[in-house]
Design brief:
alpha+beta; Beta-Lactamase; Helix Hairpins; 4 domains; five-stranded antiparallel β-sheet; five-stranded mixed β-sheet; 11 helices; binds adenosine-5'-diphosphate; nucleotide-binding
Length: 453
């Protein structure tokens, strides 16, 4: 008889046993055959029909083997998960090996199922909404938070995710995930006053994992900050206008005492600075609140470049730089001329301000069919590369004292960034300390249009 079926742990010992055992099992078959032949030859010699008895012995052995084969086939075909029939010889060995590997497989399967169960139950417990979509973007699985936050229901199973999260911003993000690596913020479609941050991750071929969480509190705080800055800027405007009006009236008086000249000049310079700050804050807050893409006005680039160049010449009078204008494109831009003029103007005044007297500044516009490039190149003080990632943050200055001295508000590049964002463009900065900087606004080809001849 065979030993009871061993447990399916995989170990070297078991493996050795498995492979060496086949001969042992075959020996059992041979022993039975030998036993039959011996009995048959004794009977055959006794009754005088030796070969007939031998043939009968072989026939009986064959019948036994065929029966075993039938039982093996029956087990594999009909009851593969039951304990196999108890057989001797190589058929028994075969059954033992099949049953053993089956059990090992089941253990691995059970482990996998356990793992999936654990992963699933942790996803279920998450406060973040999680949705899994298949290659066809159909919803496969979601957790309870997705029901609360995104309104997914049982009848949405198998539906296209874009049929459920239909906001144009999400559709745009879904189709161009790479452009927004941090995900997007959306107004919740089921709760009027709530906001969710959604992040997509691609896996497999085209399957996606959607993770969303509630950012209403952060959004409200951010909105409070924006409103506060907006209100205070508006409130400051009137007193500033009154102040600068009186300062001008005083200095224009014929009997104005020259002793007061310097303090009054300083007061005027400071009110101008505050005015610039308030104007920049208001512009920035307008740009931030207006998340729409800039309108598609055709901006005549040669004319805008010439106007910027003239303004730069005027501003340059006290710096004495050499200014160059380099236009090498027949394309115009689609966008808002006021906003673009303001952004480009900021880049130009920065180049003038941050270049020691007598520098060379080149303002350029060119394209390579794929992109349009507005560039401002200077040979000024340059910027240490460690500052570059934070340069477009509000009030971020490389050298605060110098920036104040030059009358900067610290908001110029933040405004540039927002204007460019609304035009689907971005800012690239190359700079070397004491060598100069190149600020490049890169526009996508959708924003370019061939200028009329
Ligand atoms: P600011 O009003 O202070 O000029 P910006 O936002 O326009 O503020 O610029 C942020 C900082 O970036 C500046 O304070 C300055 O240190 C640096 N910067 C901007 N443009 C240049 C430039 N062309 N060369 C050197 N530094 C620059």
């Amino acid at each position: 008889m065979y030993e009871p079926y061993p447990t399916p742990e995989i170990s070297l010992e078991h493996k050795r046993y498995r492979y060496s055992s086949l001969w042992d099992y075959a020996k059992q078959d041979l022993r039975i055959l030998l036993f039959f032949i011996t009995i048959a030859s004794l009977i055959g010699l006794g009754i005088g029909h030796f070969w007939i008895c031998i043939a009968i012995a072989f026939a009986v052995f064959m019948v036994m083997q065929l029966r075993a084969l039938y039982l093996v086939n029956d087990w594999i075909a009909n009851r593969p998960y039951d304990v196999p029939p108890n057989l001797n010889g190589i058929w028994g060995a075969l059954l033992f090996n099949i049953y053993r590997s089956q059990r090992q497989e089941r253990v691995v399967q059970a482990e996998m199922v356990g793992l999936i169960d654990r992963a699933q139950s942790s996803l279920v417990a998450l406060a973040e909404a999680v949705i899994l979509t298949d290659e066809l973007h159909q919803i496969e699985w979601w957790n309870p938070a997705a029901e609360k936050l995104l309104g997914v229901q049982e009848l949405d199973r198998g539906r296209n995710i874009l049929g459920i999260l239909r906001q144009p911003a999400f559709v745009e993000y879904f189709n161009n995930m790479e452009q927004q690596p941090d995900g997007i913020k959306l107004k919740s479609s089921i709760h009027e006053d709530r906001y969710v941050q959604i992040k997509l991750t691609r896996f497999g071929l085209e399957s996606r994992l959607v993770v969303a969480y509630d950012v209403t509190r952060v959004h409200n705080l951010e909105q409070m900050r924006k409103d506060f800055v907006d209100n205070i800027s508006h409130e400051l405007r009137t007193p500033l206008t009154v102040l600068s009006g009186y300062l001008e009236t005083f200095t224009d008086q014929e009997d104005f005492n020259p002793r007061w000249k310097r303090p009054f000049e300083q007061m005027q310079a400071q009110t101008r600075r505050m005015n610039a700050l308030v104007n920049d804050l208001l512009l920035l807050s307008r740009l931030e609140n207006d998340k729409q893409l800039a309108k598609n006005q055709i901006v005549d680039m040669p004319s805008l470049m010439n106007q910027l160049f003239d303004d730069a010449q005027a501003y340059n009078s006290e710096y004495g730089h050499i200014l160059n204008l380099d236009i090498d494109s027949h394309c115009d831009l689609l966008g808002s001329d006021m906003e673009l003029a303001s952004a480009f103007g900021n880049l130009i005044t920065n180049a003038i301000k941050y270049t020691p007297k007598g520098g060379v500044i080149t303002i350029g516009w060119h394209d390579d069919q794929e992109h349009g490039y507005f560039t401002v190149q200077d040979n000024g003080i340059g910027i240490d590369p460690k500052h570059l990632p934070r340069l477009t943050e509000r009030f971020y200055r490389v050298d605060s004292a110098r920036s104040r001295q030059t009358g900067g508000t610290g908001l110029g590049l933040a405004i540039v960034k927002h204007v460019l964002m609304q035009h689907g463009a971005h800012l690239e900065v190359e700079s070397q300390i004491n060598q100069g900087s190149c600020f490049k606004a890169v526009f996508p080809k959708e924003r370019l249009c061939q200028a009329e001849a």
